[in-house]
Known about the structure:
- The structure holds three protein chains of three kinds.
- Chain A is mostly helical.
- Helices cover 73% and strands 0% of the residues of chain A.
- The mean pLDDT of chain A is 84.
- Chain C folds into two domains: 2-43; 70-277, MetI-like fold (Orthogonal Bundle).
- Chain C is globular, with a radius of gyration of 25 Å.
- Chains in contact: A-C, B-C.
Amino acid sequence: MNARLLPYVLILPVTLFLCLFFLYPFLLVSKQAFSTGAGFTLDNFREVTGYWKFPITMRNTLLLAAAVVPIQLALALLMATMVNKMKKGRDLVLYVWTIPLGISDLAAGIIWLAIFDQSGFLNSMMNGLGLVDKPVNLLTFQNPGIVFLAIMLAEIWRATAIMLVILVAGIGLIPKEYYEAAEVFGASPWKRFLRITLPLLRPSLQTALVLRVILAFEIFAVVAALGGTLFPVLMGETYAYQFDLLNSGAAAALALIILAISIAFTLIILRVLRVPKGATI
Amino acid sequence: MAQIEIKNVAKRFGSYQALHDINLTIQDQEFMVLLGASGCGKTTLLRIIAGLETATVGEVSIGGRRVDHLAPKDRGIAMVFQNYAVFPHLTVFENIGFGLRMKKLPNDEVKGRVERTAELMHIEQLLKRYSGELSGGQRQRVAVARALAMEPDVILMDEPLSNLDALLRMEMRAELKGVLAESNTTAIYVTHDQVEAMSMADRISVMHQGEIVQAASPIEVYRNPAAEFVAGFIGNPPMNFLPAAPAGEGKWSVAGQVMDGPSSGKPLKFAIRPEDMRPADEGLTATAKVVEPLGAHLLITCEVQGSMFRAVLDSDMSVKPGDQLTLAPQPDRMRWFDPDTTLAVA
Amino acid sequence: MTAVTTDAVTTDTRRAGRWVYGSAVVLLCAWVIVPLYFLLINTLSAPETVNSFPKPFIPEFDLGSLTFFANFAGMLTALKNSILVAGLTMIMSIVIGAPAGYALSRFDFYGKELFRLLILLTRAFPLPLLALPLAVMFIQTGLDDTVFGLALVHTTLAIPFAVLITFALFSGIPLELEEAAWTLGCTRLTAFSKVVLPLILPGITASAIFAFVISWNEVFAAAVLTIENRTLTAFLLQNLDTSPLHLKFAGGFILVVPALIFIFAVRKYLFAMWGIANR
Lengths: 281, 346, 279
């Protein structure tokens, strides 16, 4: 076969596939969002944003992302540095810490339901400690704080692993000499972390944050399992528009809003954590 | 019979011209070394002969047959790679027999040939091992054996010794030369190491910036460099250069000293190897700057009228930095170059 | 004297530091494992125990919940669908993605950067949202509510990973090995099958498992695109409001098991994959 054509032949299947199942549906969803049957219109957006639940939904989603992502970042950084120093048992600890990577958001929601449920382990523990004498229903609309906390914990539990893996891989790429050089120049471990690890880790931090933030806006099943309708989020509302209200125009508009937020945050992260040209490892 | 003919071969990578109009004939059973610094195009030329790279223009023939449009497997070549390319998932036996199996030779013939070549390369006790269990030197031997087992017309080698340590490299150099001489194959050997080139080659092609500057026997390249680049590249330390001003017909003034030289109307460059300088009563006046005892010799870096100049002298001389020396060039070793064309002037 | 004191102090702080470090590691491990253990208790307890209070902290090894799960109408079909969809996704994403990974690692071609951008864009995109318009498209083509239709969407999710991971894997195999095979009588194809494929097979398996898990775990698109042929995740989601606790927990447990195996199977590749997928 002609060597010039070969690469194109090889990428053809992916390209066709993505055009058909990524670009084309993307155009479709945009078209759907901007039309109600006749011509271009913003009615769908007006309807979605005008709905009384929309501000709550938006606030919940953003609040959750704001609460979860920084904690995950800190935790993942901590875990990555701890693993990096480890000599014995590194593989075992890493295996344990990365288990949630393979666990679906739905399963994670169910797992934390086992803890926060009325007959769950949290109540059982509080009972055992004599704090309560009968089970308290924690996940109700009277306890929005606890619902939020449960969802937050489930998300942190489930999705820190993805950041951890990216950061461990990134730290592995930083040559040891840099640390040794910094140590010779008198940098304390904390200073080494601030002055060497963090700046050199920027590409990995970028990837980890972009992926995590996008996934945070897509949060759906954890909330469905733990909060149900108590804690509406954007993705859940999209699902509701499509199935309960059978309004696919509105669902499409909401989908585009989620998309816009995701892209905006991606750009912000890429901008803030940009690596100057030539300053890579 | 495998004479290799390269006609008007050029290669561009995008806007970068890697090879300019190369013409070279390599005789049957000749050991040709392509020598040059990294980026000079020597590996590109080798890969074009192998068929791993396609020339932008030009022809390559092996044994009188045009091969430029053939796949590597159809060119009758075998190749030894810089990082050996020993297949990690196969045993040494299967590595050496890989090409024979691809030719679908019968089992016992494969076995016979593998064992013979393994013995030749002294690795018969390693046949059951995997690449991961071998040292660098052993891997090197496997790579050579794998190429030899093919009984190719032409064997191509791309810096095969550059990843070995100095001692092993010296040992392998001699061994490779012997094995190849016995095998009656034509060999093209790429290296940046002039010692390797000098010691192994029948002929050396010195390459610079995508061109062959000189193709000649090692001693010819050393004694009569065709261009300034060759003079500066070959030999350690390299040749000395001093400006020469015309001082009458066939006479040249070099650092205040009048010498006999070629007839030419314009200023030339005078060149001499450091070991071809002798202390004398009359000659160039040099001020010693650095003195490096090398055991058998003294390497003296000195200054001659503002130019750096090196001389290799007998180690029983006592020279200190700051000493004034008078050094005379050996008359039959003096060379002259045209500063405009950088070519040698006879 | 002073020297001795500072020495003692530093050993003390160092010992304390090590103690803090060690307990932090243990604590973080517990943070991951304990919730899983709770799920295990619930799964391996009789339905009555699961709904009772207070909870035991050791499983009673009763298969009642799991039996109930297996006998629940539609559950086994959902499980079968999940496996089918994930299996199809695994095969399609590797068959379609690996050639592109190979092209990216071995060739420089015009439009390469554009292609990479397309791949990265796909990864940084809330893809499940695209299930909405696809639902309409699938109804028109008869792919609606089929295992294959959903597998197509999940393949879109898995493909960027498949391409990037196989790209990393192929890049890890020196081109020299392939070239050596070419000079030893191989064509491009035989060199690939005799040299590259055997070396890359474990990595390909790992990325196939990765694709399997992506599909296995996906909830939103599965819920949008299937009605009769629900996958396990879609089925559980659909019945979250109505199903009893022991059914949820048994279902959750079944969802988690492949994850544990998956992470164990690909643990060697996890970091290599992400390290290069970064760039």
